[in-house]
Specification:
Number of strands: 4
Distance between the termini: 27 Å
Helix content: 55-70%
Largest sheet: 2 strands, antiparallel
Structural class: mainly alpha
Order of helices and strands: HHHHHHHEEHHEEH
Number of helices: 10
Radius of gyration: 22 Å
Length: about 220
């Protein structure tokens, strides 16, 4: 919603005039941006994820069926609102070119030497995208793997009769007796929000639920 607000003049105007909300506010009965401008918000959401993985204005123009100039304008607006992202990407790319690797949150290496060995532009661009994609995707994997190890070692969960039965992307499913479900859910939440026993600069929030089956 914040990205859509910055991208589209008509949305920004409605928010500034007090006719539209970026997010719910207690006691305020106004339409939400995500409901009134679902298409614009979807485009903004796509940009949030894609920019982090190195997508260019050419790629956005192709996806959205717009001109390169229009896509570049949206991209510039995105970076203007988050200059630290561009700085981080440039630093990671520089290391990849100079040293031939990139690393994940927990220090796992991805060797990229072959992409910068020659003058093949396509290969170089692939290497640059991989250099900023891997720390993000690989970092997310690091977090989930660490959380799964911690849950596996949780003696209290074991005593309550709970165990991991499935993992999907950033989701973990544990199964056990219904009478201890609330306690198990809280134990799971604590482990997933603190998978590596270190202090994070951002909070890892877990949306935990109790259900009889995955479909629910």
């Amino acid at each position: 919603s914040r990205t859509a607000y910055n991208m589209f003049d008509h949305i920004r105007k409605e928010v500034e005039e007090g006719r539209l909300l970026l997010e719910k506010k207690p006691g305020v009965n106004l339409p939400l941006l995500k409901e009134k401008y679902a298409n614009e918000r979807k485009r903004a959401k796509t940009m949030n994820f894609s920019v982090a993985y190195g997508k260019s204005a050419f790629g956005f123009a192709k996806d959205w069926g717009c001109s390169y100039e229009e896509a570049q304008k949206f991209l510039d607006l995105w970076y203007d609102d988050r200059p630290e992202v561009r700085d981080w990407q440039e630093q990671v790319k520089k290391v990849a070119i100079e040293k031939g690797f990139t690393r994940t949150l927990m220090g796992r290496y991805r060797i990229l030497t072959k992409h910068f060995a020659g003058k093949d532009k396509k290969s170089i661009l692939h290497g640059l995208r991989a250099s900023i994609n891997t720390p993000i995707q690989g970092g997310a994997a690091d977090i989930v793997i660490a959380a799964m190890v911690k849950l596996r070692r949780n003696e209290k969960l074991k005593r309550l009769g709970w165990k991991i039965i499935h993992q999907i992307h950033d989701e973990v499913i544990i199964e056990g007796p219904q009478e201890s479900a609330e306690e198990a859910m809280e134990l799971l939440r604590v482990d997933m929000e603190n998978p590596m026993d270190v202090r994070y600069r951002v909070k890892l929030e877990v949306d935990a639920k109790i259900c009889d089956n995955w479909y629910e």
